[in-house]
Design goal:
Blueprint: E1 16-21, H1 25-28, H2 38-51, E2 56-61, H3 73-80, H4 98-101, E3 108-112, H5 121-129, E4 134-140, H6 145-155, E5 159-168, H7 172-185, E6 190-193, H8 195-201
Parallel strand pairs: 1-2, 1-4, 2-3, 4-5, 5-6
Length: 204
């Protein structure tokens, strides 16, 4: 890593996309799934998304319609969170937070039913159509949907760069643990850096 190339594996090029995970009203507002410090990282996420709007893909977590719609342990999950199923939720909560929603289009939106956005084949298809081989990842939550997205991206062979100041969780303890995991256990496949360094290394 050098001042000219602040990322460990060199600069990012035109085959890079910004994958922004679940920055929605559902997690920003006072709901049972509230992520308290989402607003703290929002301005940094917006900075990346504005600079690279055409390269940005937003994901939205869409809950089950009713508690028994999905199989297995998801049924137990949604029985616990029944007030957040589609048959009961205020649909406005599913929207991206306003500073990001205004960027789509040109940014793309992928809706998902499970933690990982790669559970939706349309994401991998879109990335392949665009010739993307590297992902800058931001969003929520570090230890849930971001974790699922990152591990799938690694398995699919993408270069993964986490914007460490543009990730958030409802748990400081597990956020910190996951950032340690990402940087120490996956050091050959996952890079972590602050947004300033990432933007400086991203050559469109």
């Amino acid at each position: 890593m050098t001042q000219a190339n602040p990322l460990r594996f060199g600069p990012l090029g035109p085959k890079t996309a910004h994958l922004c995970i679940d920055m929605q009203n559902l997690f920003a507002e006072d709901t049972p799934w509230h992520t308290p410090w989402m607003n703290r990282v929002l301005s940094v996420v917006v900075e990346i998304a504005e600079r690279h709007a055409k390269e940005t893909i937003f994901t939205r977590f869409i809950p089950a319609r009713h508690p028994d719609e999905l199989p297995g342990s998801w049924r137990r999950y949604y029985r616990h969170w029944a007030e957040l199923t589609l048959e009961r939720i205020d649909k406005r909560l599913l929207d991206l937070v306003p500073p990001l929603a205004r960027l789509a289009p040109p940014a793309a939106i992928i809706d998902k039913r499970l933690y990982s956005p790669f559970s939706e084949p349309s994401l991998h298809t879109l990335l392949r159509q665009r010739g993307i081989d590297s992902l800058v990842v931001t969003g929520a939550e570090t230890d849930v949907c971001v974790l699922a997205a990152v591990m799938d991206a690694v398995d699919l062979g993408y270069r993964v760069v986490l914007a460490s100041d543009a990730l958030c969780s409802s748990s400081d303890k597990t956020h910190d643990a996951l950032m340690t995991l990402y940087s120490e256990r996956f050091s050959e496949q996952i890079e972590t850096a602050e947004t300033e360094a990432i933007l400086a290394a991203w050559r469109s």
